[in-house]
Amino acid sequence: MPRVALVAPATSYQIDDFVAACARAGAEAVLVTDRCRQIDARYQFDKNQWRLDFRDLEAASDALVARAQKEPITHILPISDERAAVVVALAAQKLGLVANSVAATRAAQNKWRMRNKLADAGIAVPRFLCVPRDTSAVEAARRATAHVGFPLVLKPLALSASRGVMRADDVESFVRAYERLGALLDDPKVAAVDPDAAKSVLI
After folding, report:
1. Which residue of 56, 60, 75, 112 has the fewest CB atoms within a 10 Å radius of its CB?
2. pTM higher than 0.70, yes or no?
């Protein structure tokens, strides 16, 4: 029977669908997460629930590899998170399993880096601009007007599931959205996802 490791962080909201898909495919699901107490209460996986700390992706992948060497898996998938994707890519490379490349997953972790990679490869992307957080809202709006134009969208570089994504149709709404996004990125839990990425905004 196939044994699939599903790697998910605490913020994942698609676990049910992946577990159900494994069941339909006749595969055994192994949930690899940092959501210990909440998941324990909902899913009775016992030996099929592994715990990881996603704060250090290299260490998390090493821990996953060590566990998989003792309790083999046949497939490994990340669930809706860039950090999980990097952990999976690193672990799959060491275990000889099929997954996206480490370089691709690391590029996808950061929306600024990803857009530059796509543009360099000749893939059509919207006009974009990256603004350091220490730029004033008025100056950021000036740059956005000159380089991107309205309407536009402001995004954090590292969050997923549309968190912090806001549309602006003019300078006034841009300033409001820029300040709201700044407040979100100042949250220590949010900034901890990628401290360097939290210092900039993608427009």
Report:
1. 56
2. yes
The two three-digit tokens of residue 109, written as one number: 């972790």
Radius of gyration of the chain (CA): 19
What is the three-state SS of the chain? Answer: CCEEEEEECCCCCCHHHHHHHHHHCCCEEEEEECCHHHHHHHCCCHHHEEECCCCCHHHHHHHHHHHHHHCCCCEEEECCCHHHHHHHHHHHHHHCCCCCCHHHHHHHCCHHHHHHHHHHCCCCCCCCCEEECCCCHHHHHHHHHHHCCCCEEEEECCCCCCCCCEEECCHHHHHHHHHHHHHHHCCHHHHCCCCCHHHEEEC
How far separated are the first and last CA of the chain, in Å rounded? 46
| pLDDT (tens digit per residue) in 111-140 | 999 999 999 999 999 999 999 999 999 999
As a whole number of angstroms, the distance between CA 178 and CA 77 comes to 34
Q: Which of 117, 72, 112 is nearest to 91 (CA)?
A: 72
